[in-house]
Design a protein that fits this description.
Layout lengths: L3 E6 L5 E6 L12 E4 H23 L4 H14 L7 E8 L4
Antiparallel strand pairs: 1-2, 1-4, 3-4
InterPro entries: CHP04042_MSMEG0570
Protein name: MSMEG_0570 family nitrogen starvation response protein
Organism: Cryobacterium arcticum
């Protein structure tokens, strides 16, 4: 299961590298795209939950790194007004 990172620019201009244990994030986000804050949280939560489920199916346990990343994204998003947006700067590796 190839892992990946995606780089996010938050509404205040800060940049965060985020982790996913699966390339499934490509099904939910696109590089160089802006997402309303709530939609970004919904998309990343769904993708990271699915990625963790894939780890559980393969190895017999959930991916705690995916769950921690999900929680970090949610906590960071809570600091910003709901009317703001998040930009996905990069996704690595790209899809083959």
């Amino acid at each position: 299961m190839p892992e990946m990172t995606f780089t996010v620019a938050w509404p205040d201009g800060s940049v965060t590298d985020c982790y996913s244990p699966s390339l499934v994030m490509h099904d939910y986000l696109r590089a160089n795209a802006d997402y309303p804050l709530a939609e970004f949280v919904e998309r990343t939560t769904a993708a990271l939950d699915l990625a963790s489920d894939r780890v559980r199916a393969k190895y017999g346990f959930a991916c705690t790194s995916a769950m921690a990343q999900r929680d970090e994204i949610t906590a960071t998003a809570e600091a910003f007004p709901a009317t703001t947006s998040v930009r996905v700067l990069r996704m690595h590796p790209p899809l083959p």
